[in-house]
Structures are given as structure tokens and as C-alpha cells.
Amino acid sequence: MSAFFVIFAGLLASGIPIALTLGIAGTAYLYLSGNGMMVLMLPQRMMAGIDQFVLLTIPLFLLAGALMNVGGVTDRIVHFARAMVGHRRGGMSSVSILSSGFFAGISGSATAEASALGSILIPTMSRQGMPAAYAAALIAVASVMGPIIPPSITMIIYGVLSGTSIGQLFLAGIAPGIGIAAGLLFYASWRAKRDGFPVTERMVGRDRWKATARTLPALLLPAIILVGIKAGIFTPTEAAAVAVGYALIIGFAYRDLNLRRLWEALIATTLVSASILFITSMASIVSFVFTLEQVPQRIADMVLLLTDNPWLILLLLNLFLLILGMFLEPISILILTMPILLKFQALIGMDPVQFGTVVVLNVVIGMATPPVGILLFIASAISGEPVTKVIREALPLVGICILVLASIALIPALSLFLPKMLF
User: Fold this and answer.
1) Is 90 exceeded by the pLDDT of residue 176?
2) What region, left, alpha or beta, does residue 331 occupy, with left being phi > 0 and alpha being psi -120 to 50 degrees?
3) What distance separates the 2 farthest-apart alpha carbons in the chain?
4) Domain residues of the chain, as ranges?
5) Band of pLDDT at residue 180, cut at 50, 70 and 90
6) CB-based contacts of 368, cutoff 8 Å, min separation 6
7) pLDDT (tens digit, 9 = 90+) per residue, 230-242?
8) How far is CA 35 from the centre of its chain?
9) If you average pLDDT over residues 115-139, what whole number do you get?
10) Which residues form the TRAP C4-dicarboxylate transport system permease DctM subunit domain (predicted)?
């Protein structure tokens, strides 16, 4: 297997897209290992990897988020958050965190959240007197909530690959999402007092009610999805279709959505969906290679030679996933490592829903973890600040996310309370 990893690392370092890297490395290994005839099976494996009805949730949830975004919901969410907490010292930092949490319940994507909210809120925070690097770091780390708070594309992928209930994973993501938001709000409040960020005028009650009324329909979307799945009204796939219909109704009702913007949303959804499903199909080749060579069992045996302590195994797994998250997108990591992850889950005996929450938290936190987290580079590009400055500001914020991760990993009730109560 060393040949596979050498080829994979070389292709990735040369800048070849991850999807092609996975497919080329897997195919090359089959030839080098004397299993060239098995290459004939690869098209079938690729189709089998994406020929799953539940994967329809990905383009549908992406479309719902895109419709909300082009339909002006992003601006209404920011306005609503400003009405609630904008009057606090350094209020726009708190607005950014709350906006990220609310937007997470619509988009399900960290990169989409960082791009959409960063372009609005980073300049606004800078105008309020906050350092641009701090504003960028706050948006980058707060965007981690996107793939955690339901509906989450990353949770869907994990559920499909592992056979874990997607509805339970959605519910399990609520607690860590709230934990990260609360931790970031506490830090933002402390930082505002320490650095003397300005205080803005409180909105009058009438304007606050108006902002709430205009935003409430969009904020109800996650609740509709969760209640519908729990009540058995629709499956996760049907919930995604309901989300699209709901987004269309809201957009046209508020007259923020027109045919041109609808077309833009469809194009954006098509491009992102094709990218995700292409990665999924190519990663099926690697999963086939790993199964053929019994890689999960070999890695499990190597770890057991080091230690059989479940807590140490969990620590090693967390470090491994955080490092991978710095370099690869969460979906690529899950597809590439799922056979290994399931073997580790059996070794430590953790509940499948809790384990899935821990895994997803790890890979999405890696996106905002220095030195190469993709969210840091997105926020840096929007702010115009050097990424080194953004990284320095992001370190304590990432520390808060890791504390939440440790709590979820060590205290099962935090992630399992809602799934066990409602399912």
C-alpha cells in the first residue's frame, strides 16, 4: 500500500484536483499490485458509489440554500441578528456569530457560509473599528457551524457511508453547534470589552419586530425538516425536496426571487453537486482498494500494538482527522477513511451517532485550523489581510471549537440527549 500513498501524496502536492487524485492513485495501484484486470470493475464501483436514493438530499439541500441566498435571505438574517445583538459593545462581532448560526440552518456548507457572510460582515466589522484580521478570523471559525447545525451535507454523507440514521445525526449536531456559538459569543464579548470596540445604537422595538417577522419564515426551515423527519411525515430525501419548495415559496412571496436569480441558483447548485458526486464516485475506487488490501484491519492492528486504551485511541483518531481536515475537504476525508473509521468505532465501543458527531466535528474544524485551513484563506481573501494575521487571530477561536469537540467526545449525553429523546 505504500505505492498508493506515495502516488496519492505526489499527485495532491502537484495540484491535481482531489477527485482525479483519488481515481488515478487507486487505478495505478491496481496495475502495480498485479490486479490490472480489476480495473474493468471500476466503472461499476463508481456508479454504485453514487447510485443511492438518499444522495438526492445533497443537490436538493444545496438548491434550497442557494435559493435562500439569492432570494435575499442572507441580508435578512444579518439584519435580524443586528436587531437582536447589534447594540452590544462590538455588536457586529456578535451579529456575525449569530448570522453564521442561523445561516448554517439553511446552507449546510462551511465554504458557502464563509463566502456569503464574509463579503457582507467583514467590511462592516472593519468599519465599526475592529481589526480586519480579527473580523476575517471570526467569520472563518464561525463558518464551522455550517456543516454541523442541521441540515448538514457532511452529516448526510456520513450517514450514507456508515448506515447511521441521518435524522439522529441532524439532532446530534444541534448541541455542538450551540456550544460553538456560545463559546464564540463569550470570546467576542470579552474581546470587545478588552479592546474597547464601539457601541452602536439599539434598534427601536418596532424595527426589531419587523426584522423578526421578515426573517422568521427562513429560520423555521431547520425546525420543519427535523419535525417532519421525526414525525415520519417525510424521509430525509423528501425533507430536502420540501426545503426546496419552501425556499421557492418564501423567495417569491417576498418578491426577492425572480427567474434570473432562480437560474443562477440552479447553475450554482449543479456545479457544486457535480463536484461532490464526482468526488464520491472516484473515492469509491479507493474504498475498493482499501477493502481489497484489508487496510482498515491493518491500521487497527497497528494502533492496537501501540495501545488498547479506548481514550488514547480516540485521541489519536481526533488528531489524525484534524490534520486531514487542514488539507482535504470533509466529504473527501469521510469517503476516503470511512472503512477505517468504522473499525475504530468498533474498537472504542462508542455509540454510532456520537461517533459520527465527533468525526464530523473533527473534519470541519480542520477547515479553520492553521496553517492551511481553507476557511482561513477564504476569509483572508475577502478581507485583504495576510493569512498569517488571520491565523494569529483564529488560534483562540479554534481552541474554543476544540474544547467543544472534547466535550462531545467525552460526554455522550451532549450529543445523544436529543436523538434519544425524540427518536
Assistant:
1) yes
2) alpha
3) 74
4) 35-422
5) very high
6) 110, 140, 141, 143, 144, 375, 376, 394, 397, 398, 401
7) 777 888 888 888 8
8) 36
9) 84
10) 5-414
Which residues make Cβ contacts (< 8 Å) with residue 403, sequence separation at least 6? 183
Backbone angles phi, psi at 199, to 5 degrees: -105, 130
Q: Does 195 or 202 have the greater pLDDT score?
A: 195
Burial of 43 per CB tally in 10 Å (0-12, 13-18, 19+): exposed
Measured CA to CA, the distance from residue 162 to residue 334 in angstroms comes to 10
**Model confidence pLDDT, tens digit, residues 255-311:** 778 888 889 888 988 888 888 788 778 877 777 777 777 766 677 777 777 777 888
Q: 410: exposed, middle or buried (C-beta count within 10 Å: 0-12, 13-18, 19+)?
A: exposed
CA distances from 253 to 153, 246, 301 (A): 27, 10, 58
List the Cα angle 281/282/288 in 5-degree steps.
95
**Amino acid identity, residue 8?**
F
CA distance 102 to 220: 10
* pLDDT tens string 139-166: 999 989 888 888 888 888 898 888 888 8
Residue with cell 426584522: 211
Q: Read off the pTM.
A: 0.82
Rounded to whole angstroms, the Cα distance separating 330 from 365 reads 9
Question: DSSP 3-state assignment of 401?
Answer: helix
- Helix, strand, coil percentages, rounded to 5, for the chain: 85, 0, 15
Contacts of 164 (CB under 8 A, 6+ apart): 158, 352, 353, 356
Phi, psi (degrees; rounded to nearest 5) at 158: -60, -45
How far is 190 from 318, CA to CA, in rounded Å?
29
C-alpha dihedral sign at 216, 222, 224, 226 = negative
For 13, 173, 354, the CA distances from 108, given in Å and listed in that order, are 28, 11, 19
CA distance 380 to 245: 35
